[in-house]
Amino acid sequence: MATIIEQIIAIDSDAQKRLDEAASYKDVCEREVEQTAAKLKEETRKAIDETLEKTLQEESKKAQDTQAEISLAHDKAIAELVKRYDAKKDAVIEDLLQRVIQ
After folding, report:
1. I need a labelling partner for 83 at 20 to 30 A (CA). Which of 9, 12, 52, 100 fits?
2. How far is Cα 48 from Cα 43, in angstroms, rounded to an integer?
């Protein structure tokens, strides 16, 4: 009978040891998962930041190019209007003078 009790105690002791090992292994696994998740989160954040910065730079360049094109078109339109005005101003002034005099 004593050997059966000793065997039960040995089995219980072995089971407790295995439970302790499993709990320790679980803790290690949880720490590794947390570290991996944190690392992935940081890598993802960096990738998003880089993509955002690249996109902002590209869009800023596009906006500057568009603004330069609009400014150039504006300057050309103003120059054309000034040119037309200069070409016709003397005739218009002369016509107005003639109408006023009559």
Report:
1. 100
2. 9
User: CA-CA distance, 29 to 3, in Å (whole number)?
Assistant: 38
Cβ of 8: how many Cβ atoms within 10 Å? 10
User: What is the C-alpha separation between 16 and 24, in angstroms, rounded?
Assistant: 12
Is residue 40 helix, strand or coil? helix
Q: Residue 2: phi, psi to the nearest 5? A: -65, -35
Residue 32 exposed, middle or buried by CB count within 10 Å (0-12, 13-18, 19+)? exposed
Hey, what are 13's tokens? 């002791």
**Model confidence pLDDT, tens digit, residues 19-45:** 999 999 999 999 999 999 999 999 999
State the amino acid at position 100 in one-letter form.
Answer: V
